Amino acid sequence: MMSFVLLAEQVLNGLQFGVMLFLMAAGLTLIFGVMGLINLAHGSLYMLGAFAAASVAAATGSFLLALLAALVAAALAGAVVEMAIIRRLYDRDHLDQVLATFALILIFSEGTRWAFGSFPLYLDIPPALAGPVRLPGGIDYPLYRLALIGAGLLIALGLDLMINHTRIGIRIRAGENDREMTAALGIDISRLYTLIFALGAALAGLAGALVGAIQSVQVGMGEPVLILAFVVIVIGGIGSIRGAFLGALLVGLTDTLGGIFLPEALKLVTDPASAKAVGASLASMAIYILMGAILIWRPTGLFGSRA
Amino acid sequence: MSREGLVNLAVVLSVVLLPFAAHVMGETYWVTLATRAAILALAGVGLNIALGQGGLVSLGHAVFFGIGGYSMGILAYHAQTYTPLVESLGLPGTNLMPLIWLVAATIAALAALLIGALSLRTSGVYFIMITLAFGQMFYFFALSWPTYGGEDGLSIYVRNRFPGMNTLVPIQFYWIVVAVLLLALLFSDRLERSSFGLALAAARQVPARVEAVGLDPQRLKLVAFVLSAAVTGLAGALFADLNRFVSPTMFSWHTSGEIMVFVIIGGVGRLMGPVVGAVVFVLLEYLLGGISEYWQIAFGILLLLIVLFARGGLIGLIAGRGKAHG
User: ipTM, 2 decimals?
Assistant: First the structure.
């Protein structure tokens, strides 16, 4: 039977997965909410952050410098791409946005493969955060994953404060509500857009670097995360940071717990071998079933107001 | 005849005559390339019904392509191993193409009915993300479902049969594929001109007016989505037969993106758009792929330029702006 320790570990894994998804989803939903742009290339920025971090860590041995490199590289790439290409797409329909950003994925992915080769890179967990930590209740849990949960929660809090309580946050919300009026009040809209895009890119790059230390860093690593971030946004409601946060935790927990409990639950009704196989198949579908259920209940997501 | 009409005629003639010329000259490799292009074009013709006629930006058509592929794979697997498809009923597999196509198109249509009914509760960017997500769901299911090969895929040793033809001869298989493609194009053209097609165009442009005359725009779109999926499913079955192999890659979202790319390169809503797009894609893949394994960088740049600067696609460049598309 399932023990309390295992359950607690899986809940923590789910939270850790969820907060990292949130970093991706927050940028996507902000970019969609303010600029009305669907950006498939967001996963490429995640990958870029991971590669920048892995390269700098290999060269300097410093994890902090690696994280900084991920932030800077992703934000810079985001700003350049926004100024060169993305800003031509704001007035276009979603189809053009999908295709242009799909083209960007091809360029980023193959460009990275060309520069770094097809073999994965590895990013080591910093020594200070290596090893397990004993939690109340006798649970030994990896300190690094715990740090990821903490970092994710802090960033979520920071974003919420920034959007609701700072001048730049007011501008972002103003841009979301009424673009013309915001411009008429003397705010440089195109600079604001570049800034938001770079901010979203930096969050994606940071997520890539942080997750890169527990997975391998390779071409195409951003795409599964991108699609999960879309699921998060559909669940949370487009444009809503709080929706993205709730959606990300829901998806993270469903995916992690589903992978453990569905095979276990099926063992009660069928033999262990097929329970494992069918359970794994069902678990891989669990978050999409969750998404479908939420769509039936609330077509614009938990916090969404528009389609 | 309009300029687009002339372009269409030229495309149909090239599709029939050029591979035949290649066959006569003994260039079977080119016949196989043409077969690949024609099958991908068929997938695009399917997507174009949803995208061009219905205005539905589906980024999940790989689902139907993959379902078509696995329908073929599973039926042919049971036929080649002489095992029953459904044990309890003693239902056998089959290696007869028309039967496989029927199953592929039907299952793809049923899946589209389900996915469409859910996805069409929303619109715009939600629709794009949801179709993409459902596509990923099928991809992971195919990966983790061990019965038919899981991530290794499923090989079929002999190409399936078609009565009166030898499908192992490249040009004969090509004729079968082209016949299906031309029938699908005819179907798509007739559909667009039918009263259903006109109502669908109206539902795409001004849903409120369609509702005002007593039609349900969502239902029109759902029917278009289902028909579109059936055609793409058929293409999936043929694609699997061409390669004699199916794998979860057919379900991957890159496949969805690529099918959409064929339609756009050629021209959205243009009858021959997917054909032109698929031919250009296969040619680029062959020519650029021969120069560098990183050919997709160049392809990405080309795609970006077409999206940014050539908005009617290649047919739009040649034939000028056609009918309004909203």
Answer: 0.88
- At residue A301, the pLDDT reads 84
What are the tens digits of pLDDT across the range B210-227? 888 888 999 999 999 999
Judged by CB atoms closer than 8 Å, whether chains meet at A102 and B261 is answered as yes
Q: Are A196 and A31 in contact (CB under 8 A)?
A: yes
How far is the C-alpha of A50 from the C-alpha of A205, rounded, in Å?
7
Question: How much is the mean pLDDT over chain A?
Answer: 89
Residues of B in contact with A280 (CB under 8 A): 144
Our CA dihedral for B84, B88, B90, B91, rounded to 10 degrees, sits at: -70
Q: In this prediction, what percent of chain A has a pLDDT beyond 70?
A: 98
Tens digits of residue pLDDT in A221-247: 998 899 999 999 989 988 888 899 999
Residue B69, token pair as written in the block: 């592929």
- Compute the 3-state secondary structure of chain B and give helix, strand, coil in percent, each to the nearest 5: 75, 5, 20
CA distance A62 to chain B (A): 32
Tell me if A148 sits within 8 A of A210, measured CB to CB: yes
Neighboring chain A residues of B146 at a CB cutoff of 8 Å = 277
Name the closest residue on chain A to residue B306, using Cα atoms.
A100
- For residue A131 the two structure tokens come to 């090893």
Residues of B in contact with A106 (CB under 8 A): 296-297, 299-300, 303
From the CA of A128, how many Å to the nearest CA of chain B?
A: 36
B95-130 pLDDT, tens digit per residue, is 889 999 999 999 999 999 999 998 998 888 889 988
pTM of this structure: 0.90
Residue A153 has a CB neighbour count (10 Å cut-off) of 14
Q: Angle at Cα B254 formed by Cα B250 and Cα B259, nearest 5°? A: 80
Residue B254 tokens read as: 């890159």
Q: How far is A256 from chain B (nearest CA, A)?
A: 15
Taking the CA of residue B55 and the nearest CA in chain A, the distance in Å comes to 9
pLDDT for B326 beyond 80:
no
Q: Which helix (H) or strand (E) holds A139?
A: strand A139-142
Its sign, for the CA torsion B81, B87, B90, B92, is negative
Closest residue by Cα to residue A74 from A192, A240, A187, A200: A200
A166: exposed, middle or buried (Cβ count in 10 Å: 0-12, 13-18, 19+): exposed
Cross-chain Cβ contact A295/B118 below 8 Å: yes
